[in-house]
């Protein structure tokens, strides 16, 4: 038997037997001296073949991501009505759309800001998808205009409808101001661009609290958070949850996956 083949066999056997030994706690399989020698051989092999560690790391990461996606999907299925059918949530796209893209975002989130142009591209490419906008001002305690911008957006939606809301939404991100740099004047200008007029004091706290509860129920820990799912027949196989920035290409792939569901 060649040295490389023998070394691989020893390393594999050691790992497997050691795992079994730890799981069932039988009598030691090897003497301390044997274990020390096998450990040396394994270490020498891994140093000489680091690609083994890379492959194992990649496989473990893929398994972890798959488990996370499954957990997300189950939570999405438990909260479908809140995600898809909340009349108080801004949405654009056909009411009979087969696929929905739901975004949880904060206007002062730098990552949401960098992703906004990507979402605009996808909206133009897939006009038959329903886009749902969940205002989630998680930075409100740090920057008051995080909350102010969210509330103004909801006011625009309530007063002027979907097209105006998206105009406002994109105008806020087009300022390029985030992480506390957005001003009241920026918010006013974006709202004016959408045709909004001051309607007096409005209370959107209950809705924002509801969005916060929903995001946490889904397991999201920050913005942006994207859910892509079929409107009917959602399963773990056709739901995609992206807890972070997403490119237009990845978002399109998630839409296609949801569209392909039977």
Helix content: 55-70%
Distance from first to last alpha carbon: 52 Å
Poorly predicted ranges: 6-11
Structural class from helices and strands?
alpha+beta
CATH architecture term of the largest domain = 3-Layer(aba) Sandwich
Strand fraction equals 5-15%
Shape: elongated
| Helix-strand string | HHHHEEHEHHHHEEH
Overall pLDDT level: 87
Corresponding CATH superfamily of the largest domain: Glutaredoxin
Number of domain modules:
2
At CATH level 3, the topology of the largest domain is Glutaredoxin
CATH class of the largest domain: Alpha Beta
Most strands sheet: 5 strands, mixed
What's the gyration radius in Å? 25 Å
Structural commentary:
Helix 5 (110-125) packs across helix 10 (248-259), helix 6 runs antiparallel to helix 7 and helix 7 (162-174) packs antiparallel against helix 8. The protein folds into 2 domains: 1-51, no CATH class; 78-259, 3-Layer(aba) Sandwich (Glutaredoxin). Helices cover 59% and strands 9% of the residues. Helix 5 (110-125) links the parallel strand 2 (99-105) and strand 3. It has 262 residues and is an alpha+beta fold. It has 10 helices and 5 strands; from the N terminus they run ααααββαβααααββα.
Keywords summarizing the entry:
alpha+beta, Glutaredoxin, five-stranded mixed sheet, 10 helices, 5 strands
Quick overview:
The protein has 262 residues and is of the alpha+beta class. The chain has helices at 3-24, 32-48, 50-78, 80-84, 110-125, 144-160, 162-174, 184-193, 205-218, 248-259; strands spanning 91-92, 99-105, 130-135, 225-230, 240-242. It is built from ten helices and five strands; from the N terminus they run H-H-H-H-E-E-H-E-H-H-H-H-E-E-H.
């Amino acid at each position: 038997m060649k040295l490389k083949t023998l070394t691989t066999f020893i390393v594999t056997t050691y790992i497997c037997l050691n795992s079994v030994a730890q799981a069932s706690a039988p009598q030691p399989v090897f003497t301390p001296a044997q274990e020390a020698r096998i450990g040396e051989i394994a270490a020498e092999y891994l140093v000489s073949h680091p690609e083994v560690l890379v492959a194992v790391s990649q496989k473990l990461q893929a398994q972890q991501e798959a488990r996370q996606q499954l957990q997300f999907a189950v939570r999405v299925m438990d909260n479908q009505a809140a995600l898809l059918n909340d009349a108080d949530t801004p949405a654009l796209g056909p009411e009979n759309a087969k696929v929905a893209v739901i975004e949880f975002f904060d206007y002062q989130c730098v990552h949401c800001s960098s992703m906004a142009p990507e979402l605009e591209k996808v909206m133009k490419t897939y006009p038959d998808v329903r886009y749902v906008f969940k205002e989630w001002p998680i930075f409100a305690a740090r920057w008051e205009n995080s909350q102010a911008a969210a509330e103004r957006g909801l006011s625009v939606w309530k007063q002027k409808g979907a097209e105006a809301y998206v105009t406002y939404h994109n105008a806020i991100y087009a300022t390029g101001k985030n992480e506390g740099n957005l001003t009241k004047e920026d918010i006013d200008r974006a709202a004016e661009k959408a045709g909004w007029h001051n309607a007096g004091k409005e209370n959107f706290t209950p809705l924002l609290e509801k969005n916060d509860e929903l995001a946490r129920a889904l397991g999201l820990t920050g913005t942006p958070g994207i859910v892509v799912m079929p409107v009917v027949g959602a399963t773990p196989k056709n739901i995609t949850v992206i807890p972070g920035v997403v490119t237009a290409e990845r978002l399109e792939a998630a839409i296609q996956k949801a569209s392909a569901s039977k």
